[in-house]
Write a structure and sequence with these properties.
- With about 160 residues, this protein is of the alpha+beta class.
- Helix content is about 35%, strand content about 30%.
- Helix 4 (about 100-115) links the parallel strand 4 and strand 5.
- The radius of gyration is 15 Å and the shape is globular.
- The protein starts with a strand and ends with a strand.
Length: about 160
Amino acid sequence: MIRKAQIKDISRLAEIEVFGKRVAYRPIFQDDDGSFNQIQVGSIIEEYRQNPALLEHISVYDDGIVKGIINWKDYPDNGRTDEIELFCFYVEPFFKGQGIGRALQQYLCDEAVKQHKKTLYAWVLKENTPARRFYERNGFTADGREELVEGTMAYLVCYVKKLS
């Protein structure tokens, strides 16, 4: 079942986000300090506790265990109300390959259409081939824009999905 995140989910959200980032980004950035000292479950839990409004756009895949999270925001704060950005999307690494990511992404698209959104954006690390393949298999296309990740040599690629 996919549902809105709740306060009771905060520790699980933090775990999924931290471990998702470590698994996806450490091989790309090769940055142990960033992966293990800067990204911490405890600090993310504290951030959610201090600002529960951060949960507003987070949905979780929960079948008795919260296994995935997806979050969105208006994109890009340009005054348009029909564009959103998917910016925090992780499936617990132990549960990848079970259709959880596809279900979360489809849920977000369905909810966005109900809210009269027309376009969904996702910025993905160019070297994150599994994520790029996932987006392409699920109706996203690269729009040609790339941005350098500040302080690195890595690039982000912009993916776009038009919503019905």
